[in-house]
Amino acid sequence: MQAEKFIIRGYSGEEANRITRPTISYWKDAWRRLKRNPVAMASLAVLVLMAVMVVFGPSFRGMDYVTMNFSTKNKVPDSTFWFGTDNMGRDLFSRIWVGARASILIALVATALKMVVGTVYGAVMAHFGGWVDDLMMRIIEVINSVPSLLVTILIMMVLGNNMFALLVALSITAWCNTARQTRGMIKQLRESEYVYAAEVLGAGPMRVIFKHYVPNMISILILDASTAIPGFIFSEAGLSFLGIGLKAPEISLGVLISMGQQTMDFYPYQLIFPCAVLCVIVMAFNLLGDGLRNALDPRLRQ
Q1: What is the pLDDT at residue 26?
Q2: Is 50 exceeded by the pLDDT of residue 288?
């Protein structure tokens, strides 16, 4: 890692290798343990397949998933319409992958915002400490004291039912847990020798945070992101299903599930297929997250 590279300038070649070797072998051991987990590798393969489908799936059949065609409405699945059509005659196969693309994109952006804001906020708290730490912790406690669902509803009411508003609503409180986790980790790293050496050599707070703290927390951040993504996907689907998130004509898995629920008595496939895709994506992310948690656990190193 970059932290080790910074401090080894004063060591001989053999001593430098002894310092950097554990970092390199850590990632090799983690990848080796992950490959030995068949459930995690199967989940990774499913996610790769899903990524291909959300990119190329909507155009795979060449069907129009936007224009209404009442002559083909409510068609059951067949060789022409693999997942059938909705109550306006649009191809459900293409619409599901467009909806999955929107749901995954929202989850990835919300996770990125959560990780960046939470990591920087927690690192600043832990690095400066004292009254800065106390003040910033009180801000987190105030934010966490307000029910997140209430905050989400208020934001959606003010900004409207669009993707930007949904991203703000999902991310505005999610970063607090990442900030607390980052703060706890950096409290431990704060007393490390390479951090002390960097400060003695004149490194500023931002350089210490991004060049020394973050690289040594990368495994924890990966685990946090792997568990946050399925949570955001499910939250988006739930909010859209309840009518709080995205609404038609926007397409997401939650919107499709909400529309399918209205016709489930007569055309259950319109609900079953988007629910099945949602469950597969969320389950694959969760199983891969469990595999990463075991692979990155330093206590399991041989």
Answers
A1: 64
A2: yes
Q: Is the pLDDT of residue 42 over 80?
A: yes
Range of weakest confidence among 59-63, 113-117, 287-291: 59-63
Structural domain boundaries of the chain?
Answer: 90-288
Among the listed residues 292, 290, 288, the one whose alpha carbon sits nearest the alpha carbon of residue 280: 288
* 278 class by beta-carbon count within 10 Å (0-12 exposed, 13-18 middle, 19+ buried): buried
Q: What is the pLDDT confidence band of residue 301, given thresholds at 50, 70 and 90?
A: low
Whole-number Å distance between alpha carbons of 175 and 114: 4
Q: Return the H-helix or E-strand segment holding 270.
A: helix 269-295
Closest CA to 32 of 291, 281, 234: 291
- Please give the average per-residue pLDDT across 10-20, as a whole number: 41
Q: Which of 209, 226, 214, 193 is nearest to 296 (CA)?
A: 226
Which CA distances in Å does 238 have to 57, 65, 74, 150, 253?
A: 23, 23, 24, 14, 9
Taking the C-alpha atoms of residue 205 and residue 127, their distance in angstroms, rounded to an integer, is: 8
Amino acid at 43: S
Q: What is the DSSP string of 205-216?
A: HHHHIIIIIHHH
Q: Does domain 90-288 have CATH number 1.10.3720.10?
A: yes
Q: Is the dihedral of CA 236, 240, 243, 247 positive or negative?
A: positive
